[in-house]
Amino acid sequence: MRDQGIGSWPARRARMTPDRVALVQDGVPTTYAELADRAGRFAQTLRERGVARGERVAFLGRNSVEFVITMFAAAQLGAVFVPLNTRLAGPETAAILADCSPRLLVRDLGLEAPGPEELVFEAAAGRGLDQVLTRDGAAPDEAVGLDDLFMIQYTSGTGGRPKGVRLSHGNIVWNVFNLLVDVDVGSDEVALVTAPLFHTAALNQVLLPTLLKGGKALVEAQFDAGRTLALIEQHGVTLLFGVTSMYQALARDERWASADLSTLRSALSGGAPIPESLLRTWLERGLAILQGYGLTEASPGATMLRAADGLRKLGSAGTSCFFSDVRVVTPDRRPVPAGEPGEVLVQGPNVTSGYWNQPQLTAQTLSEDGWLHSGDLAVVDQEGYLHIVGRLKDMYISGGENVYPAEVEEAIYTHPAVAECAVIGVPDQTWGEVGRAVIVLHTGRTLSTDELLAHLQGRLARYKHPRSVVFTDHLPHNASGKLVKSRVLELHGLTDRTESAE
């Protein structure tokens, strides 16, 4: 094959295991031979629609076989795949489409988007595209290399101009290699894909490694805790990915205690630290959640906490992945001593070359020697294990002392009444800034500010204690399930609906 990129994967796997099931959606299987055939024929369709090398093909739709087919088809042409967040408002989607200027938008019939020429389908386990597939003809075999641009993934930032992260075929391939070194994904893998594929983790940490190894991926349009537990039992799921809110929902489901989870070999997480209390809830079921640290700009894997260290280093994000290098540094890029916070820098073949149409932001984020400035704060322990403590922009200074919200949140989570929490810094005339805890309680539980402060006594220095508390029914999350701190600030940063802790 002339195609050395990711678009060639279905054909390469089909010549090895054509009859093995690659994807299952709503009970409908798609074999590797069928996936290769449909991706090849859809690539011809895209070519007939005028899509050429380097042009963008945007996709707006929930998790589906159509998503996978479109991605591979665009890659076969040397075109650039742009997955769109289905939860964005119309103007937000329009801004992304204006930024990347796609040649074609492939859109699910049930979703609306202003934009360029469209090809509309109705999701049906890969067969929603059948009406537009080229009926015959060989699949294209373009000379696509690892340095060619594969995808633009827009980050889940909530304000300002959208950031389109440029990811090459090589970036993704090296990321998959990192994952396969850390997680023993096998050809017998049954991976459950419930997190949105338009974000980096579900796509690059679960789906693509599974397909490379010849395993089976169950593609779900969206996450539902009860259905997830049922699918694990029904299909013998071995690989699962989730963020904190998803693992919390599973542990709170009425079937949690009785569900058969014996087939699960790996439960992966990323995006934000998981509270130790939740990790221990899963450990009680015999399952260690494998936490890692990453970001879209690193495709996303940077570090991983391996299974062997899961209990000993509970709550850590682990150490660098095999083909990645991670440093924690001061503002002038000197290594920080063990236990001191600093910014996380990442380098490796999985790291982006920059942002689409944003050279100034690229120059600010990537150093001349190839290190990516993450904007995340971490401490490294004496053994070199990474512990994420928050975002640079989330840190606040109270009475001259730096306070890292993730550390405070971890302490709050140890109270059994707390289901979810977020700590933010708010203005204070005396101290400059003080902490405010925004808390969701478990159903049927109660908690007062005084009780919370008594619980934190001895767990945190007094200056880190929140000075006010807001109790709410829910916290805002984005489409990937990550807590949106900027939205918490908007909703609760200036509110008077608090219980004072002063």
Can you summarize this structure?
With 502 residues, this protein is an alpha/beta fold. It is built from 13 helices and 26 strands. It has helices at 9-14, 32-48, 65-76, 90-100, 169-182, 200-213, 225-235, 244-252, 276-283, 359-365, 405-413, 449-456, 485-492, and strands spanning 21-25, 28-31, 56-60, 80-83, 104-108, 118-121, 149-154, 164-168, 190-193, 216-219, 239-242, 266-269, 289-294, 301-304, 319-320, 325-329, 342-347, 354-355, 372-380, 386-391, 396-398, 401-403, 418-428, 432-441, 468-471, 499-500.
Account of the protein in words:
A nine-stranded mixed sheet has the order 2-1-10-9-11-12-13-14-15, sandwiched between helices. The protein has a four-stranded parallel sheet with strand order 4-3-5-6, with helices on one face. A four-stranded antiparallel sheet has the order 16-17-19-20. Strand 9 (190-193), helix 6 and strand 10 (216-219) form a beta-alpha-beta unit. Among the domains are: 1-6 and 33-145, 3-Layer(aba) Sandwich (Rossmann fold); 393-500, GMP Synthetase, Chain A, domain 3, CATH 3.30.300.30. The chain is globular, with a radius of gyration of 23 Å. The model is unreliable at 496-502 (pLDDT under 50). It contains 13 helices and 26 strands. With 502 residues, it is of the alpha/beta class.
Summarize the helices and strands and which ones pair or pack.
Blueprint: H1 9-14, E1 21-25, E2 28-31, H2 32-48, E3 56-60, H3 65-76, E4 80-83, H4 90-100, E5 104-108, E6 118-121, E7 149-154, E8 164-168, H5 169-182, E9 190-193, H6 200-213, E10 216-219, H7 225-235, E11 239-242, H8 244-252, E12 266-269, H9 276-283, E13 289-294, E14 301-304, E15 319-320, E16 325-329, E17 342-347, E18 354-355, H10 359-365, E19 372-380, E20 386-391, E21 396-398, E22 401-403, H11 405-413, E23 418-428, E24 432-441, H12 449-456, E25 468-471, H13 485-492, E26 499-500
Parallel strand pairs: 1-10, 3-4, 3-5, 5-6, 9-10, 9-11, 11-12, 12-13, 24-25
Antiparallel strand pairs: 1-2, 7-8, 8-18, 13-14, 14-15, 16-17, 17-19, 19-20, 21-22, 23-24, 25-26
Helix pairs in contact: 2-3, 5-6
